[in-house]
Design goal:
The protein is 19% helix and 23% strand. It is α/β, with parallel strands linked by helices.
Length: 212
């Protein structure tokens, strides 16, 4: 069952700046705010990528109705790392989750995203800002639609790029193969992560994907 959405927090540029500065003050590119634990995973969020995500939140303010949580996917990290960060903008806490990238972004299956693509049928991950949409039950069970807000990902709806749970995203895959399986461009996460991500990133919120 999905948790109810928390109240929307309208954030000012000053809050954005203070949040980014707090990350920068805590260390270098591997700095972190305050990390929760998801399964057995702790992780770090890159401050430059967080800054870009916050800038995207302001840039697309007319499209993003809920500004309490954002998702930040750092595809400069390998798939074995918890690189999908759920950032609580009210208190600065971060929960980090595993997420797969598209097979078209890593055709040799190295575990590293080699390139982004917005092209139909590319099976690749797209970079940029997304608005979360409705939750539905499809081929992958509970899934959440995404709308690409940038020229680099504006085919997301027509490509059926969504957030969904996947059997190939878990610690056992990492233990056996050193990496996760690959999606067809979707943000495929562990089934155990899905309820928390659905609750935090319900309709009208921002997910930002990129490389640090």
């Amino acid at each position: 069952m999905l948790m109810p959405e928390v109240d929307v927090l309208v954030l000012s540029r000053r809050f954005f700046n203070n949040l980014a500065l707090a990350v920068l003050a805590s260390g270098s590119a591997g700095a972190k705010l305050a990390f929760g634990r998801t399964g057995s995973h702790d992780g770090n969020i890159d401050p430059s990528l967080l800054r870009r995500a916050l800038d995207a939140l302001e840039q697309h303010s007319d499209s993003i109705s809920s500004r309490d949580f954002v998702g930040v996917a750092d595809f400069s990290l390998p798939s074995r790392a918890p690189r999908f960060h759920l950032v609580n903008l009210a208190d600065g806490s971060v929960r980090s989750h595993l997420v797969a990238h598209g097979r078209g972004s890593d055709p040799s299956h190295t575990g590293w995203l080699q390139s982004f693509s917005n092209e139909p049928h590319s099976n690749a991950t797209s970079a940029g800002a997304y608005r979360t949409g409705s939750v539905y039950i499809g081929a992958h069970g509970h899934s959440m639609r995404l709308e690409g807000l940038d020229p680099t990902n504006n085919n997301a709806l027509s490509r059926a790029i969504v957030v969904h749970g996947a059997w190939y995203v878990n610690d056992r895959m990492i233990g056996d193969f050193g990496m996760l399986g690959r999606s067809e461009g979707c943000f495929a996460v562990a089934d155990s992560s899905l309820p928390e991500l659905m609750a935090g990133l319900g309709p009208g919120r921002l997910i930002y994907a990129g490389k640090a």
